[in-house]
Amino acid sequence: MLATRSLLKTVAQNPVAFRSALTASPIVGARHFNASRKTQEQCAAAESELLRQQRKLRPVSPHLDIYQPQITWILSGLHRITGAAIGGGFYLGALAYVAAPLAGLEIEGASIVAAAASAPVAAKIALKTTIAAPFVFHCLNGVRHLIWDAKKFIDIKSVYTTGYAVLGGTAVGTLYLASL
User: Fold this and answer.
1) What pLDDT was estimated at residue 35?
2) Sign of the dihedral defined by the CA atoms of residues 47, 50, 56, 57, in that order
3) Statement: residue 148 has pLDDT above 80
4) pLDDT of residue 152
5) Once rounded to an integer, what is the mean pLDDT over residues 104-110?
6) Which of 2, 69, 91, 131 measures 20 to 30 Å from 23, CA to CA?
7) Which among 64, 67, 74 has a CA at the least distance from the CA of 167?
8) Are 95 and 102 contacting, i.e. CB atoms less than 8 angstroms apart?
9) What span, in angstroms and rounded, lies between the C-alpha atoms of 91 and 44?
């Protein structure tokens, strides 16, 4: 990027010298393409194939690798992920409840309570923590978004403060629900 800007600045300052330098000696590493009449008259399929081959050689966009992690976009992504996970869990639970009799399984309140009572304590705590953490985070972060909709706490310092408050509240709420 900087090399391109430097080259453009040089050309803008002295275009005549740049043109004469190009004709005098070719630039090392530069690609030159002299199209003949035959290559210019290609069919649409050949052009499409040429474009496909060129696209394979293009670099992949760096996406998230070039950005410094910030609490704002991390919490935004987690809010979306936890919302999808909670919604998917509810749908799977409803489908399991409907499909269980077809498979010969029994999903009723009494059988669920009996299964939970017979599980080891560590498994109960792990399951409750796994369910409680995304639920508490999504709820608290949703309240944070509702507060933003009311145009409160939208300066950068408050955004970070409320983000850390959501993380702290998530830890406390998760521990509380897991201990029940």
Assistant:
1) 56
2) negative
3) yes
4) 95
5) 84
6) 2
7) 74
8) no
9) 47
Distance (Å, whole) CA 57 – CA 16: 34
How far is Cα of residue 126 from the mean position of the Cα atoms in its chain?
Answer: 27
pLDDT band at 106 (very low <50, low <70, confident <90, very high): confident
State the Cα–Cα distance between residues 46 and 59, nearest whole angstrom. Answer: 22
**Prediction pTM value:** 0.63
DSSP notation for 60-92: PP-GGGGSPP-HHHHHHHHHHHHHHHHHHHHHH
Q: Two tokens at 29?
A: 């590493």
93: tokens are: 């639970």
Q: Whole-angstrom Cα distance, residue 53 to residue 57?
A: 7
Q: Would you say 62 and 121 are in contact if contact means Cβ atoms under 8 Å apart?
A: no
